[in-house]
Amino acid sequence: MLKIKTHIVAVTMGVVALVLLCGSCASDRRMAAEPTVCVSIAPLKYIVKQLAGDMYEVETMTPAGVSPETYQPTPAQIAQLDECLAYIRVGTLGFENTTLRRITENVPHLYQINASATVPPLKDAVGDDPHAWTSPTSLKLMAQEIVRGLAHIDKHKADTLKVTLEAFETEMDSLDAQLSRQLEGAACRTFLIYHPALGYFARAYGLKQLAVEHDGKKPSAAYLAKLVKQCREEGVKVVFVEKEYDPELVAPIAKEIGAKVVVIDPLSDNPKQQFIEIAKALCQ
């Protein structure tokens, strides 16, 4: 184990050295006609594309189907950060606050934007909920932070970004109102999910989230028995499971409580459509 850790440290330090060495030669590329912006997860890419269209190339750090709470960026991805105009992070994810934080501290020229800086934090049973992007209101607040940051470092695009921000805010307000009206008709305001990723969505619409995964671990038999009892008492009819997890993880529970299993993708590059589908599932 010591040899493995030593190797990881050596690789990481090697990448940092490479990034620092290339810093001066990359500075011109960062301000190219279509500069690159790096983001932590696909929902942030959605926001940037809605705001900036083709003004920026957008690279996503976390691959599809991988948890951003445990992901380890590759050396190639870390080296790529040196050529980015900015790095936009959620600000709450595991890999952002561990591996990537240590590396970006050694890349002083990299401008970083904490997209969730003004999103009111949500605490769950095990601490801060990292899924800060899972509501239209959160996306709107994140868009404001992203525009604030991009306008600071790319001033000639500031006026355009402010206009597109207003359009995005209007779209998110409209979506929020639509979801509020739709969810008023939900037969049950409690839902079950495998990994607790919809806390912000639940808070926004007065819903209650129950989770199979407990404290980041697989549930014990005693916990599952208690959970099944609670689901029955509260009339749960929908069990969500994220795309990166096997639906069979929740199928036995869903069968026992008479609920349907619905696969969702909170890490989708189209969070607006995901919100609509989640609300539809809760109202059927």
Kindly summarize this structure in a few lines.
The protein is α/β, with parallel strands linked by helices. It contains 10 helices and 10 strands. It has helices spanning 2-30, 42-52, 75-80, 99-104, 136-153, 158-183, 199-204, 221-234, 251-257, 271-283, and strands at residues 36-39, 57-60, 84-89, 111-114, 123-124, 127-128, 190-193, 208-211, 238-242, 260-264.
What is the average of the pLDDT values?
86
Oligomeric state of the chains in view? single chain
Give the CATH architecture of the largest domain.
3-Layer(aba) Sandwich
- Give the class-level CATH name of the largest domain: Alpha Beta
Largest sheet: 4 strands, parallel
The poorly predicted ranges are 1-32
Query: What is the H/E string?
Result: HEHEHEHEEEHHEHEHEHEH
Can you describe what's shown?
This protein has 284 residues and is α/β, with parallel strands linked by helices. The protein folds into 2 domains: 12-178, Rossmann fold; 186-283, 3-Layer(aba) Sandwich (Rossmann fold), CATH 3.40.50. It is built from 10 helices and 10 strands. The strands form 3 sheets. Strands 2-1-3-4 form a 4-stranded parallel β-sheet, with helices on one face. Helix 2 (42-52) links the parallel strand 1 (36-39) and strand 2. Helix 2 (42-52) crosses helix 5 (136-153), helix 5 (136-153) runs antiparallel to helix 6 (158-183) and helix 6 runs parallel beside helix 10. The protein starts with a helix and ends with a helix. The relative contact order is 0.12.
